[in-house]
Amino acid sequence: MTAPRRTPESMKISISTKLFLAVLSTALCVTLAMGAADGWSFVRGFLGYVNELAVQRMDAMQTQVSEGYRQHGNWEFVRNQPRVWFEMTRPENDPFRPGDMSTPRLAPVSDLTGAMLRISLLDERGEPVMSFIEVGRDAVRRPIVVDGRTVGWLAMTPFQSVIEVGGQRFLHNQLRASLVVGLIALLLAALIAWWVARRLLAPVKQVAAATHRLAAGEYTERVSVDSQDEVGQLARDFNQLAHTLERNEQMRRAFMADVSHELRTPLAILRGELEAIEDGVRKLDGESLRSLQAEVGMLSKLVDDLYELSLADVGALTYRKSELDIVEQLRIVLGIYRDRCAEHGLALELQLPAQPVPVLADAGRLQQLFSNLLENTMRYTHAGGCLRVAVQVEDDAVSIDFLDSAPGVDERHLPRLFERFYRGEGSRSRASGGSGLGLAICHSIVEAHGGTIEARPSPLGGLWLNIRLPKGGQ
């Protein structure tokens, strides 16, 4: 039976483990580097110390060696005579020198490390007289002067390694102590890395888990925010994202319900009319055809509006902008709707400048914008009311105001008037409410022109729609 293969997902390493390993690896590298530097520094310092002691020992021997040469007149008495050499160079405090043994005396540290075996005696020509090792170029030399004449040299060959010194055990103890300190430091680093990985990454893991649930469709998911650092900002951004997605999901469901409702009503009427004609209940005359044509026109208008909004969402609406007079465009649309306003019993109050007001805009889209606003007014405003249209030129913008009379809109509904299929009144009556897409299309057109549209309570008792567009050339 073959063992199951491990997938990449089962082999993935969590961010906590990665952070723990990163901190631990850094601490390990620093510990090893410090240990290596400490060992190198110790060895270099230890060798330097021992060599310095040997040089001091050699300096102390100069007087004794000079006195020996003065007594014998040459170096033949000590040439290749190790016993004579050691007797002559033995220090005053040597415990093995004959004399008073009542006071314990210690040999020099340099002698304990074998420095005497590294000190050689050379004649005036530099030839070895008494030497245990070969004298190299790196040897430290001291002249032997007798009666003002250099009769020879003392040469000390420095130690090159701790093994030569004989301090290998001392070095091992030092390295062992450094290793213990390094292991303790590494353990502390591991504990700190574990705490950091557990404590600091806990909110990140919480956001990651919430993100998985959000991706699965749980748009009500939220994470708690208890810090003001980058992790806290990440949690707040996640909550904002979840809120936006939840709202978009609600709007999507409401949109689907509204579309199905708006399509079902005229289709039901068409179906009923056709069945009545088919059953002979209603005659196929001009009135029935006009009724069918009206429902088809309403369906066509709804589909056209939906299509236009979908194009606006993806930025595919075509705008042919040019510098034009917005007052002229407004007069054209008002001229078309003047008779219809009179039929609805609405009085028009115009406050338009006498001089042209240039803006950079698409003439067709502006006329569509004004037509939708006028349609909205005629659909909602009671008979006998009025509509005031005003244009004001400001420093860097043109302000267009549409103010109508009662009925008004509750202020809590004003921010949502530009949402699709939203109607200010609670009724879903299509006779008064239309499709609910007109103001959404107006909002899209104004934004495409770099402007803003805002709904406010009207001083006339109805709705006040304010549009601000950039002036021409700006």
TrEMBL record:
Keywords, in A-Z order: Kinase, Membrane, Phosphoprotein, Transferase, Transmembrane, Transmembrane helix, Two-component regulatory system
GO cellular component: plasma membrane
EC number: 2.7.13.3
Reactions listed under catalytic activity: ATP + protein L-histidine = ADP + protein N-phospho-L-histidine
Classification via PROSITE patterns: HAMP (PS50885), HIS_KIN (PS50109)
Superkingdom: Bacteria
InterPro entries membership: HAMP_dom, HATPase_C_sf, HATPase_dom, His_kinase_dom, HisK_dim/P_dom, HisK_dim/P_sf, Sig_transdc_His_kin-like_C, TCS_sensor_his_kinase
Broad EC category: transferase
Histidine kinase domain segment(s): 258-473
Location within or outside the cell: Membrane
Gene Ontology molecular function: any one: phosphorelay sensor kinase activity
Primary location recorded for the protein, binned into one broad class: membrane
Protein name: histidine kinase
Classification lineage: Bacteria, Pseudomonadati, Pseudomonadota, Gammaproteobacteria, Pseudomonadales
